[in-house]
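Supplementary notes for students who missed Thursday's class. We covered one full example, reproduced here. Read the sequence, then the structure, then the short commentary at the end.
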Amino acid sequence: MLVAMAWADGRLEESERAGVLGAASVFNLSKELRDRLNDVLAKPVPVDQILLDTLSTKERAFVYVCGAWMSAVDEDVDPKEEQLLDRAASLMGLSPARKAELERIARDLEPPPEGGRQWAKEIERLFRAIPPRLEEQADLDEVEVVFE
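Structure (token representation):
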């Protein structure tokens, strides 16, 4: 999803590439997955082909928050980025309320430091910040209501 967002405007900036690679370093990907990542950095996979339907509810939320954060990190959300987020939300079955809630989480995350951006560090910080926020929400999402 980060690669798709980076490519949303039709080009991949070197800083965006560095950010995606920095995110990958957080996950300590296998060589096979790193090779696949390099392939999609060279030629992105359309969002419709990302296997979003195989993700758990929590993973979908994480992916969406990452995409929303990435779209706004430069403080200028491109209309193509908005369209991509809308399509991803639709593919993941996110309700408008859940989509708005996840976008608030993305906006509330610590903004990048002023001055020279270090995308790899920012993305790493993002990945470390998201899980606690989603854990707070998971308690609400997993409440089962039973009417007798």
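Commentary. Residues 139-148 have pLDDT under 50 and may be disordered. The chain has one domain: 2-129. If anything here is unclear, bring it to office hours.
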